[in-house]
Automatic annotation (TrEMBL):
Residues 7-99 form the NIPSNAP domain. Signal peptide: none annotated. This is NIPSNAP family containing protein. Pfam families: NIPSNAP (PF07978).
């Protein structure tokens, strides 16, 4: 299993657009072979940081999902929310290997 952790710097004045962006991507990940663990939005402290975590069974499965970017209309529409609203200022992806309870 591979988990993608995305750290976002967002525009706090555009949090509603970011939430809509997140809802779309949670659905897309889940429908295209992954498991979305949610978006984590500012509550206290820095108001411009957000995170998303989602997993795929393998890096190859993630690459199949990534191949849909820029081609599938639903993916293009989801990115359009980000691009037109300016809710995301920048982001960084990191791939992690989870150690989960009960794993040996």
């Amino acid at each position: 299993m591979i988990t993608c952790v995305v750290e976002y710097v967002i525009d706090p004045a555009k949090i509603e657009a970011f939430e809509e962006f997140g809802r779309r991507w949670m659905d897309l990940v889940d429908r295209h072979g992954g498991t979305h663990h949610g978006y984590f939005l500012p509550a206290e402290g820095a108001s411009d940081k957000a995170f998303a975590l989602f997993s795929f069974p393998s890096l190859a499965a993630y690459e199949e999902y990534r191949a849909l970017f820029g081609r599938e209309p639903e993916f293009i529409d989801a990115d359009r929310i980000r691009d037109e609203s300016g809710c995301v200022l920048r982001y960084e992806r990191t791939f992690m290997r989870p150690l989960l309870p009960g794993s040996s």
